[in-house]
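queue> holo job accepted (copper (II) ion)
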Amino acid sequence: MTRLTRRSFVSTLVGTAGLAAVDPVLVLAKTADGFFDLTAKQSAIHLVGKDGPSSTLWAYNNTSPGPQIRVRQGERVRVRFHNNLTEATSIHWHGIRIDNAMDGVSGLTQEPVQPGDSFDYDFVVPDAGTYWYHAHNKSWNQVARGLYGSLIVEEPAEVFDRDHDLTLVLDDWRLQQDGTFDTASLGSMMDWSHGGRVGNWPTTNGERLPNFVLRTGEAYRLRLINAANARIFEIDPNRFNARILAWDGQAVPLPHKLPYQPLLLGPAQRVDLLVIPKKPGEFALEEISGPKPWPTAVFRVIAGNSGTAQETPILPVNSLPDPDLDKSITVPLKMTGGAMRRMGPTTYKGQPLDGENYQRTRQFWAFNGVANLGEDPLFRAQIGQTMQVEISNATAFPHAMHVHGHHFRVVARDGNKINDGSPWRDTVMVGAEQSVTIAFVADNPGKWLLHCHMLEHAAAGMNTWFEVA
Ligand code: C2O
Ligand code: CU
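queue> job finished
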């Protein structure tokens, strides 16, 4: 696998959290009428430890990550969402093969929820796995400020109990010298035209370095979610003998070792890891892209009760329709623009872009010569049609391409076919100057986004849509 280039981590990391044995994730309880109550509002949150300065963030129910929503596969999820922010917003349920009307995309699937208003989300979750929710109106601003949380869909029969099921929501914040959130640089033209807003303060579940206690011989599921605007986390699960359980929520048939390294966890991507510690001691989940790896979470291993190692737990695989490549329709998607490359002839809102218009409209990227959502979709598909999207990246940056409402398989990389059933994904990394072909059955009616999940790139043009009828 080719290593992707990206900006290196700029700041020194200071301070470590004390040793706590708790899973810091707060699970949301239902109200009497079966709704989860979720309120977005401005909140004072400590990002650099409880004694450090507090930042003015936007958060769901006063915490970032927001409270975890846990439901069972096939269950109906009802969320009563209240917007107590000063700007309009909506919630997207990332990775859920959802009813279009509930997809939460402001301006495409719903009107944005205005300040003071509420909106009831009501949908069924067809697949078990690790998902997340986040704001989907000016996401580059709202997600950067803290509007996201995890959404866990449990298997019909429990595979890991709560003590062995750990969620790690990764983010990186851009802080100022005084340790508070850097608001002034939101929307920076430099970020929009380069690698997106990359931070200098990584957190896991909102803490710089949470500690987890594990027991030898017991099997743990670590659910990693990258909630950062633009940072790619590079990790090596082989360093602590972890096996892959699932990608982007979808379980693999058998847990397996990663046959390459590093694992690139791009923005919005998830990976579930299986860890069965053998010896007491300590290990860390490290980000390894730079010359000096740095930890994002620490695991302290103590002696377990059972002398014998547990059998390998296996997750049931969700049933998704397999693409039929022989009867497929192929659509090219050429990504252009960004710093150090030419954008080529580009239209935005039906008008050609030139000269000062790039800066004025803040459009620096395009798909097939169109910046942002055009009148016409990338394609219209009949329901049940297998679509292949040939994504070619003619830019100098990697991108995290996300399809709404569907999961897909990668069927080719750089022109080489992949026949051995690559995993289901909802977001795929496409390296600079690389190409990736994805295939999926367009089986979910409605209007769906396809965009780069580096949120500044999406805002600056890397955003299109398709329709399934
Ligand atoms: Cu995670 Cu368009 O979203
Ligand atoms: Cu991008």
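queue> The longest strand covers residues 36-46.
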